[in-house]
Amino acid sequence: MTIEYVDAGEAIDHGALSAITGTAPAVATNVNYDRLLDARSESHNWLTYYGAYDGQRYSLLDQINTENVKSIGPAWMFQAGTSGHIAGASTYAFEACPMVVDGVMYVTGWDGWFWALDAKTGQQLWRYKHAVPFDVSLCCGNVNRGCAVANGKVYFVTPNAHLLALDATNGKVVWEKTTGDVRAGESASMAPLVIKNTLITGGAGGEFGVRGHIDCWDLETGEHLWRTYTVPKPGEPGSETWPADGEAWARGGGNHWVTGTYDPETNLYYAGTGNPAPDFDGAVREGDNLYTDSVVALDVDTGEIKWHYQFTPHDLWDYDSTMEMTLFERDGKKLLGHFDKNGYFFVLDRTNGELQHVTPFVDRIDWGVITRDGKVTPRKYPDKEGEPVHFYPGPAGAKEWTHAAYSPRTDMFYVPVADVGATATRRRREFKEGMPYWGAAVQVDIDDMAGSVSAFDSHGEEKWRWRLDYPMAASVLATAGDLVFAGTPTGEFVALNARTGEKLWEFQCGSGHHSSPSTYSVDGKQYVVVPVGWGGWLEGIIPGMLGAGHGSALIAFALPD
Amino acid sequence: MTITDEPANLLSELGLDKQNHATIGRLLGTGSIARATERADGTMEATIRIKEDEVAWDPAVLVLPHGGDLELTVINDDKNTHAALFPSNGDKKFLWLLNHSKGRAKLNLDGPGYYWYSSPGGNDEGRGLTAAIVVLGEVPPEARLDRPDQQRP
Q1: Given Cys at both, which of A44, A508, B60, B91 links A13, Cβ 3.0 to 4.6 Å?
Q2: How far apart are alpha carbons A472 and A405 in whole angstroms?
Q3: How much is the pTM?
């Protein structure tokens, strides 16, 4: 018997079953390197990941200020939710920093999502969804921290290590590259950075024993221009800091998974690198293990490492140094400030890497000591097989990836501080490609923790501290309105007086914060926008909040009309 | 259960692969496995089907030799209406499947890795209408790490 089937036709885009228009104004067409060099002066926009190449996360906008911030409220919200079976369904989070160009907001999400929104109303204009394999290797969470915008395109990476250039008017793919090997355990989550006519990316996978690298691509074609591995091969400079025999270097980690900063005058890209692998078993990788836990200053034209500074030699605590290298000037000197996982604030000369000073920025540090001249002495670390060792800070560090801000008005750094310890027990394991390669059993404390938004002058002296009962796990934003905005793990989004730390405003967003707020204006009205969606590597950052709910909201705040 | 029981026998003995037998629905992943056909131009094709009263996709696991473009013929042989929501680079793909209907879906997927897809109505997903597309292979040579080949599990 022949069955006569009803014709079901052809499958359609899921987004056609929504109210999205499918197109956005062509505001990104004229975003180019010249504008990015002067991004801060376009205070109505947030053109690049940190607001400007210097990494300061500081805006000149001051319509919202200490006098009136108590009156701001939600102007609009965007929510995405999640459905079906996704990779890391228990660990997805909204970690992005929204970019804004002339009234259009570009924001990335978990699991290959990219949304273009009307920045005035929150209306969704177009969306892109990359199909991410369910079984992709993720150490920490199904997340993405943002995109880059230039030449009519937006650029972002996916958890399965693809780099995409989309048409900024409609989200269609212009070009695509595979940047990493998922079978090796590689992934990608950082916002790329546009420099000149190129794009810089890094990747993740230090917990799987990959070999970290930083890549450069042509903006228009995606042609791969250079790759710099952060762990040298035998015979290359730095290889003397790895065992001469064996393949520890091949599995050395050192991943660049947070966006770097850039100085056009030095022509250097300042990239932070992650932990060596295996994270906690140092005996299989004797030596300082360059260039893990370092800042490497790369010539942007060639990728050559011009200088480096290692914050934690021979790391045994998972103290990635990937976080921002904030560029600032003092007494005519070009400097770089970095608040490291290891609990210390480093200031370096960014022309040559020379240490200026190093000071602690968290109360509890007992893994080791770093003296003012930079000498590192480890004290407590996993060593004997099966013997638990407790240390502060834990592996998420005194400051995880979430970013500090610097205000040139106050000459202060504002830092999201985390104070929680952990116990690591060395459990040696052999290397097998694609398998987690930590070398220890790790448990972070679920109590006896603290946190703060702390203000430091550039010499590391603490000026004020706004305390909370939980480690901070979201980025800080500073503005010329003398305000510091920060979101807490329990959902409060607060505005603090940048000079005194006094809390001036608070709004309960309904989910813990683990993202980077930004600020912009449209038609003369200033907005502060924050993604709110708890998740990510909670078992490392705050296991005491592992049971809290996820979220997927983007909230824009403004003064009433 | 003793350690000498073979899981496959226990599966059918208990009726884990049937609706409203061992449990309310059919346990996911308890169906057949099939390979897609590769065409001369490297694109792939396959037929997937919802059989009558199984509330499950057949095959439960569709295997592609590599990533790329896949053309599916999608058939609903059931006496009830379902739908299909597939992963695909760009946007998920939705297909409404009336009783005894037949349609098409063009997908683009990366490899290696596997993806779940489902019928997104009611609790079709939980009753059994969730299946996998597995993509075999390696990443392109230029995406491989510059290091000696490493031992895998």
Answers
A1: B91
A2: 14
A3: 0.97
Please compute the mean of the pLDDT values over residues A125-136 and round it to a whole number.
Answer: 98
Instruction: Give the model's pLDDT for residue A556.
Output: 98
Sheet holding A162-167, edge to edge: A148-150, A153-157, A162-167, A173-178
CA A51/CA A324 separation, integer angstroms: 12
Q: A87 vs chain B: nearest CA distance in angstroms?
A: 9
Res. B9 pLDDT band, cuts 50 70 90: confident
Q: Across residues A268-273, what is the average pLDDT?
A: 98
How far apart CA B18 and CA B15 sit, in angstroms, is: 5
Report d(CA B61, CA B132) in Å as an integer.
5
In chain B, residues 85-114 whose CB comes closer than 8 Å to chain A: 85-110, 112-114
Q: How many CB atoms lie within 10 A of CB A83?
A: 12
Per residue in B35-74, pLDDT (tens digit) is 999 999 999 999 999 999 999 999 999 999 999 999 999 9
The DSSP secondary structure of chain B, one letter per residue, reads: --TTS-HHHHHHHHTTTSTTSSSSS--TT-S-EEEPEEPTTS-EEEEEEE-TTT-SEESSEEEESSSEEEEEEEEE-SSS-EEEEE--TBS-EEEEE-TTEEEEEEEEE-SSEEEEEE--STTHHHHT-EEEEEE-S---GGGS-SS------
- Sequence-distant (6+) residues with CB within 8 A of A515 are A93, A94, A95, A96, A97, A402, A474, A475, A487, A530, A531, A532, A533
CA angle A79, A81, A82 (to 5 degrees): 155
3-state secondary structure of A285: helix
Catalogue the E-assigned strands of A439-502.
440-444, 450-457, 462-468, 477-479, 483-487, 492-497
Using the beta-carbon criterion (under 8 Å), do A179 and B143 form an inter-chain contact?
yes
Type and span of the H or E element at A540: helix A538-541
SS3 label, residue A183: helix
Verify whether residue A13 is a known catalytic residue: no
φ/ψ of A16, rounded to 5, equals -65, -20
Do residue B98 and residue A6 have CB atoms under 8 angstroms apart? yes
Residues 119..148 of B with a Cβ closer than 8 Å to A: which? 120, 125, 130, 132, 135, 138-140, 142-148
User: Catalytic residue among A215, A318, A320, A419, which?
Assistant: A318
A507: which 2 tokens?
Answer: 């709004």
- Three-class SS of residue A283? helix
* Arithmetic mean of pLDDT, A303-315: 98
Write down the ipTM of this complex: 0.95
- How far apart are the C-alpha atoms of A91 and B139, rounded to whole Å? 25
Strand partners, B71: B45, B106
